[in-house]
Amino acid sequence: MALERQVRAKLAGKRDPAQEQEAQEWIESILGEKFPKGQAYEDVLHDGQVLCKVLNKLKPGSIPKINESGGQFKMMENINNFQKALTEYGVPKIDLFQTVDLYEKKDIGAVTGCIFALGRTTYKHAEWKGPWLGPKPSEENKREFDEETIAQGKAVIGLQAGSNKGATQAGTNAGAARRIIIGK
Fold it and tell me: How far is CA 74 from each of CA 4, 69, 77, 182, 183, rounded to the nearest angstrom?
């Protein structure tokens, strides 16, 4: 029982309330509706319906059927459909969470991380005009140099290499000199 408690404490430590609040506000702004009052963040996301609706707003028709009733398998199917649509939208597989992380509330931090990954991926879709979540991913900025410019660059000693002009040890002092007194 002690190990289970330690695991739960570790997973709870991964959660960042500020990030969860930011993700919730982003979801609410996309859907145009607030989360129900008195319900926790993870309880609203629990069955996958809200997440499926978000992805359908970002890319209409990406999840054709959202199960709104039925047993736990139907609700877990929503989460699986959401994850499949995420990879098709361009979210890296490494950023996905496992179905039980959300449905059984085992790792809500991973779910929030996945929502942030989705928010970052929206920057790559020109058809999406915002709102965005998280920082914009960097883009490649490849540069081409001609042979003359490369040769000029080889002749320059960079400042990282240092300079030895006037380098001496004059004036250096490593603290007080050691005094050896004989006869005391």
Answer: 28, 7, 5, 91, 93
Tokens of 113: 């991380």
**What is the spatial distance between Cα 14 and Cα 109, in angstroms, rounded to a whole number?**
6
Q: What's the whole-model pTM score?
A: 0.71
Cα(182)–Cα(15) distance, integer angstroms: 66
116-137 per-position pLDDT tens digit? 999 999 999 888 888 988 888 8
Q: Are 114 and 91 in contact (CB under 8 A)?
A: yes
Domain ranges of the chain: 8-124
DSSP assigned state of 59: S
Considering the domain 8-124 in this protein, what is its CATH number?
1.10.418.10
- CA dist 88 and 101 (Å) reads 21
The secondary structure of residue 62, as a DSSP letter, is S
Condensed to tens digits (0 to 9), the pLDDT of residues 20-46 reads 999 999 999 999 999 999 889 989 998
